[in-house]
Amino acid sequence: MAAITAPHNPISATDFANEIRTELKYTQGVTPKEATVDDVYVAAATAVRKHLVDSWETTKQDMVNGNTKAVGYLSAEFLMGRQLQNALLNAGLTDQFDAAVKELGYDPKDVIDAEYEPGLGNGGLGRLAACFIDSLASLGVPAFGYGIQYQYGIFKQKFDEDGKQIETPDYWLLKENPWGHTDYNRQVHVSFGGKVEGTKWVPAWSVRAIPVDYMVPGYKSGRVNTLRLWTAKAEDELDLLTFNKSEYTKAVANQIQAETITKILYPEDSTKVGKQLRLEQQYFFVAASIQDAIRTFYPGQDKPDLTTFPQKICFQLNDTHPVIGIAELMRVLLDDYGYDWDTAWDITSHTFNYTCHTLLPEALEQWPVSLISELLPRHMQIINEIDRRFVEELKGLTSDEEKIDRMRIISTDKEPKVRMAYLATAAGQHVNGVAELHSELLKDVTLKDFSDLFPQKFTNVTNGVTPRRFVKIANPRMSDLITEGLGTDAWISDLEMLKGLVPLADDPEFVKKFAEVKKANKRDFAAFAKRKYGFDVDPNTMFNSMIKRLHEYKRQALKILSVISTYANIKSGKINPDDLVPRTVFFGAKAAPGYYLAKQTIQLINNVSRVINNDPAVKGKLAVYFPWNYNIELAENLIPATDLDEQISQAGKEASGTGNMKFALNGALTVGTLDGANVEIRNLVGAENFFLFGMNVDEVTDLYAKGYDTKGLSHDYYESDPDLKQAIDLVADGTFSDGDKDTYKDLVNDWLTKDYFMTLADFRSYMDIQSKIEETYRDEQKWARMAVLNVANSGYFSSDRSIEDYLERVWMTGPMPAHRA
Ligand SMILES: *Cc1c(COP(=O)(O)O)cnc(C)c1O
């Protein structure tokens, strides 16, 4: 039995209450009487942090001194969620905390609620990074997460009176942040611009990169890793000479330029300056991280032997955002440490691995050569040389000139671009997709030329989610029942143990308890939704959720059209509402600020919600809610309460999905296409416990070949399906826009003329599966049994298993990392 992370000598609730009092006094400077709930939160956070410090220190020392290889997880996003409950769990202090804050006169829930959720990520990719660093720590793998401390994370979403999305800045640091330690003594410098003289880079300007360190405590591993997020500051904050000439704004121009780099996540990049800012961000954090890794692993050495670098650390590139790091490591080795090209390349190409997260060509970043040349002239020189040598290498492998041209890192179009995915694939030791189907499609389509010539580079690691946050913490009732059923809580760090629940699916007593847990979770969510959004949710209905970024390929449009169709058929008398399973549909989704059709879809959903929820004809039968600002908190509350989960992307477009995993692990059944990890979920939980519909990848490919999107074939589907026609006509005729026919004009027009993601083509199949879903749901026992089997067979989707796979397939080129202390 592994030791809990901390404290090594467990303390009592009274002791912990005293520690909180001490922090109130010495950190917050308030008496328990003066303290607000925010003070108690900060004091409790500070107290629990202290319990983790010893493990943090040993982990850091062992990482440097031990003969182990560390992982540097480079990611532009870390969507961490709130920290307090997770820290308490991993410090073994949950019960003490509950009792201690009660002793101090507070409700533990209120104290946990006082934490402001940082939004330093956009969706699945950022949450994956957070799950992975949790699992790395829990498995005892020495690791750093490296990213950016954005001052404003992803925007905060609101809806206006018309149901339109409004974006406001999310100033998460307005409240005290007790988790991040800003370490001014460990700053590094990052340079930009200027020119190259021969091969010597003479930069034009530089900024200070200051680390903000977060502890990443493992669960029962004795390990606490570090998440290091960089923040940018000016070299000279204030130009006093200028200031004293009363030119106040000009005097802080440096400060503004520097701090802009870490101001927000994903600045709008349709303009040249926007693009430049993104590239500045990417270079800023990887350059700082590479310097940091060298000083960490070769402390105090002026002339370190960096040929051992790949044995010290390997960098995992989470998508293309950090890929400029490849050119940067080459530059550091060549220019700062004087290695020759071959040695530098040998080190670099053994250091990086690349995770590809998409199949959408537009999501693979390409930076104009002109932009890189301006911002990072020396790096452009190096990339040119990498490209030249790569082409030479290709010539030795194939005589197919066209193929070679297609594979060039620098495209040959009129405005040449650096294809970051190609750079990562050429230089990285391994390239992985994030679900089996996705990895196959990467090899067969997106990176086919590369996989033909370098098949050994390609592998798959199916994503996962951390069972600590998304089961144990999010769903305490179900967790207790699982522990009762298995007779142990060891499943929390060994999720395949959930298999032990399979026989219990045939135990009516257990299944009944399981169904009761879901009902209680639904009541909890209804209370949460009332408190937080003012919604009157009926917990006695089926909870049907679709929460994810808003994107056409994910097909929120398909879901809302089906809702509209059902509503219309009730209104017209075609459906007797008493024959329907009463259902509440939840949407949660942010749309990228510049993504017009996605924003129209949001507006449509909001207005369908308004119309339906106010129509007495469907009261108690059908309701639609769209809680705004989808974030981890909403996920943690809604997922355990959900009966039916929507994973309805067009086949071949969702790389993996991790929402699907969270739902299955919390006993929701999935309606989904054969896409991303759905395929593996369905295989594991059993086809009979999954509601499959829609076209598969081959059928989608065939339909494109027939000209679906280019010849306007969607119109045929519209004409030939009266339900579909009726639903779309209602959108077009102003039913959901107070009679205005223009509001959704572009959305409707897109459906009828292009419909690239084949929403209309899959509509009938989607409606048909709903009947089967309703029939199944009516048999409560049967539904609950299927839900138990989903939980029991989803242990594979623990991010612990993903990390084990990375260790085996991607990172294991050097000495074994020490598994657990
Ligand atoms: C899990 C998660 C996601 C990813 O959801 P998908 O359905 O896989 O796209 C996005 N956002 C948040 C807040 C999440 O927790």
List keywords for this structure.
821 residues, alpha/beta, Rossmann fold, ten-stranded mixed sheet, six-stranded parallel sheet, 48% helix, globular, binds pyridoxal-5'-phosphate
Description of the structure:
By secondary structure, this protein is an alpha/beta fold. It has three domains: 1-65 and 82-116, no CATH class; 66-81 and 117-463 and 804-811, Glycogen Phosphorylase B (Rossmann fold, 3-Layer(aba) Sandwich); 468-797, 3-Layer(aba) Sandwich (Rossmann fold). It is built from 34 helices and 22 strands. The strands form five sheets. Strands 1, 2, 5, 6, 9, 10, 11, 12, 15 and 16 form a ten-stranded mixed sheet that branches. It has a six-stranded parallel sheet with strand order 19-18-17-20-21-22, with helices on both faces. Strand 3 (156-159) and strand 4 form a beta hairpin. It is globular, with a radius of gyration of 27 Å. The mean pLDDT is 96. Bound molecules: pyridoxal-5'-phosphate. Pyridoxal-5'-phosphate is lined by residues 123-124, 127, 548-549, 630-632, 635, 657-659, 662.
